[in-house]
Amino acid sequence: xxxLVPVSSNPLSYAELExxxxxxxKSGLFGMKTAEQAxxxxxxAQAEGRHPALAARDYDVIQGxxxxxxxxxxxxxxxxxxxxxxxALTDEVADATFKHQQGGEVxxxxxxxxxxxxxxxxxDLWGKYPRQMLRSRTVSEGVRTVWPMATSGCYxxxxxxxxxxxxxxxxxxxxxxxxREAINASVPIAPKPRTRRSFLDxxxxxxxxxxxxxxxxxxLFDQEVVRARExxxxxxxAELEDTVTxxxxxxxxxxxxxxADEPVEIFGEENVLAG
Length: 275
Hints:
mainly alpha, 3 domains, 3-stranded antiparallel β-sheet, two-stranded antiparallel ribbon, 14 helices, elongated, disordered C terminus
């Protein structure tokens, strides 16, 4: 069996690939916009036995996706012992037979009628360069059929540009819920028990967010608040009393010296607010 490509005797280290990838990306000459894109393609080239720098020659990055140029795909196919016979190559049809001793033989035809059926004919490049587009499609399908190793697992740039919708952008189907997830969904998780701290914070938020005297009274006369003021001891008791005092001072401020209204009876031991 023939080798796919000439073997590189001195593979580059990853540090060398990084430097080379950065230089290729900065050059902007090969469609690789980032060093990561260049490094990834160079690693593919090196794994196949060719010098990593040849990745810039043989590959394109189309809309963030790797693509192998049709001439590179065809060259690797021929170097691996493949044979191609062209029967027609015009602006209307590309017709060729691809043969390999291990992959067999197949005749592939791409014409404008087939391109139109695939929804490709109206696209810009198909109108300007129909022969080249037909040839690339024929090469890709023929090589992929009888000797797919020459594709490097990629499509040609002309195909990648034409891929739309579910062909290449398909979203994975949602996975069925596991047994554990199904059990959790059927048995709701019990809420965490409310602590004195969380109750105090909740009461403070209600008082601070109140928009009327009635809303403040509703909080202050709530049975849980009344019970807490009677039963709690220590620092939390002090915080609660401070919270209540601030709310009362805000909504029932001290009467001015010359005020005409009666003074407010502060919320005290009998838990009564007047006014």
